[in-house]
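For the sake of transparency, this paper describes our internal protein records without simplification. Because each token names a local backbone shape, the row as a whole describes the fold. One such record is reproduced below, unchanged from the form in which we store it:
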Amino acid sequence: MSRLDDLFADVPEKMGVDDVATLLGLNPRTVSNWLKDGQLPGYKLPGRWLILREELRDYLAQTYTGYALSDPDADETER
């Protein structure tokens, strides 16, 4: 299982701005701005955004740069 799979393991199928902000460790305003700018996938409904788990997961998987924070518990051969 990938780290992305781990991140999304217990995430609800449908999310709002606050849910995504918490999941990604971002400010809700940042998430809203990214949704408005089309930088994150979502659906604008009257008064709120709807973000689907699988669409967000797929988007993040496509934008993966190969960079990951090093694991402080890993030895040098695992990095």
In short: The mean pLDDT is 86.
